[in-house]
Amino acid sequence: MTKTENNPTLDGIRGWAFLIVLVMHGFSICFDGSQQYLQGCGKYGVWLFFVLSSFLLTKNYVLTNGNKRKYLIGRIFRILPLYFICIAVYSGLNIIQPTISEAILTSVGLFGPLHLWTIPVEFCFYIILLGLLFVPNQSTRNLIMLFMAVGSLISLTYIPKDPSSSNVFWYIPSFYCGYILAVLFPRYSAVRFGMAVPLIILTGFVILSPGIQFLLFKIEPSPYLMNMYFPLSMLWGIFILAVLNTRSKYIDRIFKSRLLLFLGKISYSGYLFHLVIMMELRKFMGSSVTTVFFSIVLSIAIGYLVNRAIEMPLYKIRKILLISRTV
User: Fold this and answer.
1) Among 101, 152, 177, 326, which is 20 to 30 Å from 171 by CA?
2) How far, in Å, CA of 44 to CA of 46, rounded?
């Protein structure tokens, strides 16, 4: 969940992804009976995180032949230290009890329990992008990413997968949507979108949710959304393009609003720790909409505190290391 650069709208989009996760997990965990109607909806935000991270890193490093050492140090310090602290907190509270093999994989960033499965997936994709930085020809890079994405999609037709697997191979199609968006973005930078495209896409996500499917079409709720990351990631790619190139003052204001910008800046800290907040608050307050509300507010507050107390100091250390390496 890489830090955005230069364009505040990107932080706003990241904040939107974080808000989706908070609301979906808040209701699923803290309100009895809602989980079956929200199956897979929490992953809406995850796919958006994946596409946005891939877009940013491809744009800022792969397409500009960025400094490999800077890239690696930046990714390690951005992801792993706070992730390891989070794992320690969850383990200390007995929320997770990893086996020895899981603990070993976790120690090198290759396994994540509960919602933390997304962190190893992202980190492994960062390593893939690092490998692409050693490929000098951009067309060859594009072909490599295309072959990996197609290979993943073909494999999914034959090999069952866990929708919360930490194996990055399954999610290459999702990351590919961000990668190809970065490649094509300069060609469409002059294209302007109104409100229609992002609103249609968001409406589509609402209609695809199991609860709305049941309400409108009497289709029994199922976890069918869990593995629909490729088509949903494609929609998010179009959404990002439409928001970045919007001519609508309303869309622009929303994604540059103080709330979404704030949520975007604390999204990594908040994402890591929100589940423990919600689970513990549910034990204390029981099942209610009030619990959902307070779980979201407290998750944001804890995310802010962790961001200020741990994440930002780590960011400063990262900057010092990068400066010392370039002097």
Assistant:
1) 101
2) 6
Strand partners, 246: 193
So what's the pLDDT on residue 279? 92
Rounded distance, CA 160 to CA 158, Å? 7
Domain boundary assignment for the chain: 8-188+238-326
> CA-CA distance, 205 to 47, in Å (whole number)?
12
Instruction: Give CA–CA dist 184/247, Å, rounded.
Output: 19
Please report, to the nearest 10 degrees, the dihedral formed by the alpha carbons of residues 228, 231, 233, 237 taken in order. Answer: -170
pLDDT at 153: 87
Angle between helices 8-30 and 42-57 (to 10 degrees): 160
The per-residue pLDDT of the chain, averaged, comes to 88
Cα–Cα dist 41/210, whole Å: 8
Q: Is the pLDDT of residue 46 over 70?
A: yes
Helix (H, G, I), strand (E, B) or coil at 290: helix
